[in-house]
Amino acid sequence: MPAPTSPLRIVPAPRLVHEAEGAPFVVSAATTVTVGTGPAEVALGVLAAESLSRISGSTVEVRYRDVAEPTQPGDVAFVLDDRLAGEQYHLEVAADLVRVTAGTPEGLTHGLATLHQVLRPHDGTFAAWPVRVEDEPVHGWRGLSVDVARHFFGPDDLRVVVDLMAGYKLNVLHLHLSDDQGWRLHLPSRPDLTARSGGTAVDGDPGGYFTTEEFEALVAYAAARGVRVVPEIDVPGHVNAALHAYGELNPDGEPTDEYAGIEVGFSRLWADLPATEPFLRDVFGDVAAVTPGEYLHIGGDEVHTMEREEYARLVRMASDAVRAAGKKVVGWQEIATTPLEPGTVVQYWDTRMDPAPIVAAAQAGARLLMSPGSQAYLDMKYDGDTALGLEWAGHIELRDAYTWEPTALVPGLPEGSVIGVEATVWTETLRSLDDLMTMLLPRLAAVAEVAWTPADRRDWDDFATRVAAHGPYWDAEGLAWYPSPQVDWH
Ligand code: TNX
User: Fold this and answer.
1) For 3-12, 328-337, 419-428, which range has the lowest pLDDT when averaged over its residues?
2) What is the mean pLDDT of residues 390-404?
3) What atom of ligand 1 comes closest to residue 377's alpha carbon?
4) Handedness of CA 203, 206, 212, 214 (dihedral sign)
5) What domains are defined for the chain?
6) Is the ipTM beyond the 0.90 threshold?
């Protein structure tokens, strides 16, 4: 039986895909997910069985097996094998067996994502045609930054975002949790941040915030799907929500007014005020306490009302607070103009800025995360007719989001200094999950491929053909998306 369509619709494109001959593996009530008994494997097995049950309509069970126990016909076997490493995985589909092999649970998660993309509707259930995939990513940090401060997106929305990310093998959810318009994470040491600034948003729209428990639950949900959360508290600018909650952060000791506009660059902390350093220590300490991941993001962008020295002192204070809490520092590219500890992650975004400080920072040991505004800012309009979004970095059609090479953006970077790629979505104009998804899809799939697939295996026409098959899947999941005219959608 020939494959009705090729499995080459996999996004991001794998290193190696070998289509074989033979009958398909059909998901049925006889299908069993089998997995080892480590905690991460158990969680993955349950997820795999749930999703296979959901798409096929049959109940797919999980069987836990000892290392030595052989697989049986009808198994979808997830196997840890230390001959593979890191995020590497193999997927083999034969008529009677699906086997995913990897060295780590993350690798197994990627194999599950690929399996989902090779399954297609067949005789009232789903089936996958024989194929062998061998795959691993180029970059270890493949992120999406979501601004939950301008408009609030809560746990339900973000779980949908996490599911989408995992499907495209993105592994870092960066949450922009504070800005001028609102503060989105309750912190026990500073309860007024959310009590006074949690309910506001752009245009007077309703705000909201994460309780500690909600945040921890989201972090765990993401972790089970191979996604780490990197929380951002943006300082020393973008801080009006904090200045509104705690008057002591202002020179006159008085809280500022709420802010519901979309200007940037006007609010700031003050290095000489006695309240500032304790505030930073409390805030980053509390955020670290709900963050199992290694990194906290200190923001650092668009401070337009401060001398260089004071800016550098405040970046230092925030970075010291992060390190005192046992975490590593991430900041927007402006922090590269200040002295940084080696290993600090600098997030490149503004392609208009002089890259010299970024190159110098990288030479001194900083690592670079690439989020170029003109390719990876998924809040930019697709074209002049797009109702949502901003335009300061130009229009970004699908092909623009696809056609760039992260290691070639900033000339003169030392070899190996780029650790990854992150898309961003800012929410000044985005109010609902549909708004958010309309901006993310299909472009998030393009950025995911830039982050995962080696440059010599990326090709626009080939991508456009593969991504065309994803529209029906987004429809089935109830996700809003933009039917880019650059793709011949199925
Ligand atoms: C720039 S990117 C900003 C954000 C805005 C965004 C809108 C960055 C570090 N700062 O404050 O929301 O542009 O596209």
Assistant:
1) 3-12
2) 98
3) 14
4) negative
5) 7-135 (3.30.379.10), 141-459+471-476 (3.20.20.80)
6) yes
